[in-house]
Amino acid sequence: MEALDFARDSWEEDEEPGLGHLHRSTSLQTLFTPLALTQPFLQLPLFLLRERERESMGKVMESENQEFPAEMASDDFSDTQLIYHVRAALASVTHEDGDRENYDELVGYLHPKKIHNPDEIALLVTTLKALSGAASYIDSAHHEALLFAVSRMSLWNYGTDVMDALLELIISLASSNGKYIDWCLEMLVKNFVPPYFDILKHENGLVKKNKVLSRVHAALKDIADLVPLAPLRLSPIVVQRMPSVFSKEPEIVVYVENMLKLESGAIGEIVSSTMLPALVDRLIELDVEIGSDGLLQEDAKGMFEMELEDDAEDNDEKYDSMTPSELLFRKSLQGNLVVEKLDSLMVLTFLHLESCQNSGRLAEVFNVLLGSFKRTVLNAYKSKFTQFVMFYACALDPEECGLKFATVLLEMFVSDVNPSSTRMSAVAYLASYLSRAKFLSAALVSNILQRLVGWCFDYCKSHDYDMNPRAHQVFYSGCQAMMYILCFRLRSLMDIPRLKLQLNKNMPIESILKHKLSPLKVCLPTIVEEFLKQAKAAQLFMTSESFIFNDLLESDLSRAFGGNDRLDMFFPFDPCLLKKSESYLKPHFVRWSKVKTTYDDDNDEFSDSGSDVSDDDFDDRNADDMMDDDLVVSVEGLDFNRMSITPKFTGMPAIIRPSTNPKSL
């Protein structure tokens, strides 16, 4: 009974009721010390006890004694003897007339069941370790029942000793025969998430999670070391088992945590090119789901609002920079389960990017994300939030990632190899990025802008045609991007003498706008109007044309060049309204209310509610000057001091059906 007493003394209560484990120092030989035959079920498999009973009673035939190693005659079972008996049990079912009794007992010990005492745990650990030693004898053709029983075992249901024994068996199987690689990898990936999430709600739920997942990833590393091609097999398995957009938030969040841990782990160099694109694809699916499930579409004009910087009715510091329309839209997102999942995954991705920056891997990871962006995100016009993964990566490393993103977008626009829609989308991203990224220097913006203006000027020289929105979509999108950037950045460029000179001498903007293609008549009136107003105040150029907009956000001409996807109204980096994600982006993001325009008084105090100058003051001070100059712009119904030149919620439907979950963002 010494072995039984030792096992009981060694047993420690696991973090979950009813589960236990033995100290790691407990050896197979100690566990298998024979017990009194009156208690055969406590630690030894029954077929081994029957074997011991036959030996002790002298009923073992001479031929059988010769079949086993000499040490079988001793009083104790050694590890080698135990493994030998398990091999015999496995071999017994490979013959049609074989005795299946021992094999069936062996399989029975593996079927998941609630374990109540340390003796049952010791028996399970013993069985798993013995199978590990006999892994090369396991044949899927004959031992399907055994493999099925093992596949139903979850690490989350056991203590650490059973976990370690089960993982030892999985690693042994993977290294013993190549045909088990996928089965073993799927077994490990299955344990990325618990079988039921009540486990994580327990007092020691986080401890249990760390114990399981640390062992799973260590096992994946061990298999990769033993089988170098295993990581290539792992990537598609992880992607295929990824929870769908309809899964519950805890499930998909924990699973993505494991994907990102793989990406940054020992085999990350191999799996990174698969993990990150798969994550971006899932973000896009969730993003688009927000726009198609539970949303009521309105007519195009009703989907947009001016970003009026009224005083926020909500005095909460978190919302004091938001316009009433933004607050209204955020309230419509509250309780939407898809939105909450997307927000949580975005934050998880942001934290991963921060980790990559700290470890010096951000540039490498950014290249993978950039490839995924070009393949998936760039032309997903219904995407409203996923693109901020790229924005945040650039914010963490403006000098390398930030510059590269702007350069790639510009190159995609100027390359006539790309489809028109791709070029228009690229320049819309470029304009929105250069306008909203607080971390980009004025010099960088000026250099990119000069190349954009140069392309538009060259286009004018080679296309001596009259205005035609549909025939020259790419040109008009470039002109609109140019004006959009200057609405946000003109003041900062004019305040630096070197950049002001570059703008006046090296950028023939006036020639472009006066061309027969008439971009001022085709581009969005709200952008043209704000641009001309700032250009006049900065004395950038003068034009003899008059434009009467009458408070138009868009026109028939802008709709024509924008096409069915309304790329004339595509501003991908408009404010992000996901509650948790926005807190990460806010320090790096330029809101229109914070922009100093060329017509602003230097003594004005800028706040999230815009300029302190009233509508009447603006009209009284500027009306005469505007009529005297050659530039005439009608301002009926528009408050320039408080307007945003960005149509709000681009592509965003107006109403989201409330979710049954009342939890807010």
UniProtKB/TrEMBL annotation:
Q: Where is this region: Disordered?
A: 1-21
InterPro entries hit by this protein? RNA_pol_I_trans_ini_fac_RRN3 (IPR007991)
Q: Would you name any one GO CC term?
A: nucleus
From which domain of life does this come?
Eukaryota
Gene Ontology biological process terms from the UniProt entry: transcription initiation at RNA polymerase I promoter
Q: Where is the composition biased (Basic and acidic residues)?
A: 1-10
Q: Which GO terms describe its molecular function?
A: RNA polymerase I core binding; RNA polymerase I general transcription initiation factor activity
Q: Which family does it belong to?
A: Belongs to the RRN3 family.
Name this protein carries in UniProt: RNA polymerase I-specific transcription initiation factor RRN3
Q: Which organism's genome codes for this protein?
A: Crotalaria pallida
